C-alpha cells in the first residue's frame, strides 16, 4: 500500500476498524493479531503477528508434545538407532510402519 493513506476513527472504547484495502495489504483476517510496534519516531507500525507462527502450530498440539517428550526420553535413555545410508534409513522406517500397523 505504498503511497496510499487510510484514515480510521476511534469509537468510545478506543477501537478502530481497518479499511478493507489495509486488511488485504496486511493479509489479516478476523481474529488475527496485529502488533503495534513503536518506530522510534513517535509513530507506530502495524505488524501482522501471531503468538505461535501458523506453520508451527502442529508442534504445540498436546498430542505432538506428548509424542516428542516420549521420543526425547527414549533418546536420553539410549534408545536410538542409527543407519549409514538413506536406503538403510528407509528400510528401518518401513519396518517401524509395519510394526505400528500390526498393533
What does this protein structure show overall?
- There is one protein chain.
- The protein contains three helices and two strands, in the order αββαα.
- It is α+β, with helices and mostly antiparallel strands and 103 residues long.
- It has two domains: 1-51, Pemi-like Protein 1, Chain: D; 54-102, no CATH class.
- A two-stranded antiparallel sheet has the order 1-2.
- Strand 1 and strand 2 form a beta hairpin.
- The longest helix is centred in the C-terminal third of the chain and has 17 residues, at 86-102.
Number of strands: 2
In order across it, which strands form the biggest sheet? 1-2
Low-confidence stretches: none
**Annotated CATH architecture of the largest domain:** Ribbon
Cα(first) to Cα(last) distance is: 56 Å
Shape: elongated
User: Nearest-angstrom radius of gyration?
Assistant: 24 Å
Counted by DSSP, the helix tally is: 3
Structural class, by secondary structure, is: alpha+beta
Note the main sheet. 2 strands, antiparallel
Strand content: 5-15%
CATH class of the largest domain: Mainly Beta
Helix content: 25-40%
Mean pLDDT: 90
* SSE pattern: HEEHH
Tell me the count of domains. Answer: 2
Provide the fold topology.
Blueprint lengths: L19 H7 L6 E6 L5 E6 L12 H15 L9 H17 L1
Antiparallel strand pairs: 1-2
